[in-house]
Design goal:
Helix content is 32%, strand content 26%. The strands form two sheets. Strands 1, 2, 3, 4, 5 and 8 form a six-stranded antiparallel sheet that branches.
């Protein structure tokens, strides 16, 4: 039984972030819930402080990338992640607005998934966002982006985003 579960598991990469409340505690709570409800945490990046992106008139974010081993589908990971966000007090008021916690599915194995208005994996904007690529490069430097055919490190080293991202 354990052997089959291991064969069916997928490594998923997620980016967590938040800029309201106790930002570091919110990341820790989300990671604990992800580990309990989605799959075993394999690795965690350092925590990065990042200026707000998209809507810049708000507090800076803390971001952290994680990888986990899961037996769930990508859609199930998305649904569970949204449930975890809600359980931690996430309220969706505006696009790119301030939030207690945000959990984005960045990569799901080497799968390419496009479910209109629901799920796009790899995350379609990851290669343009320094706050995604720096923590991702820390834990998945050699992982190959299934669409671009480049490693995460190659993408991170060539990103043109000038957003201020610093490791804590």
């Amino acid at each position: 039984m354990t052997l089959n579960m291991a064969l069916d598991s997928t490594i998923a990469y997620l980016l967590l972030g938040g800029n309201l409340g106790n930002r570091e505690e919110n990341l820790q709570k989300a990671i604990a819930l992800l580990n309990d409800e989605i799959g075993e945490i394999v690795s965690k990046s350092s925590i990065y402080e990042t200026a707000a992106w998209g809507k810049t008139d708000q507090p800076s974010f803390l971001n952290q990338a994680i990888s986990l081993k899961t037996n769930l589908s990508a859609l199930e990971v998305l649904e569970k992640s949204l449930e975890i966000e809600n359980s931690l007090g996430r309220v969706r008021k505006e696009k790119w607005g301030a939030r207690l916690i945000d959990i984005d599915l960045i990569l799901f194995g080497d799968e390419i998934i496009n479910i209109e208005n629901k799920l796009h994996v790899p995350h379609p904007q990851m290669q343009f966002r320094k706050f995604v690529m720096e923590p991702m490069a820390e834990i998945g430097a050699g992982v190959v982006h299934p669409v671009l055919g480049k490693t995460i490190l190659e993408i991170a080293e060539n990103i043109v985003d000038d957003l201020n991202v610093k490791k804590l």
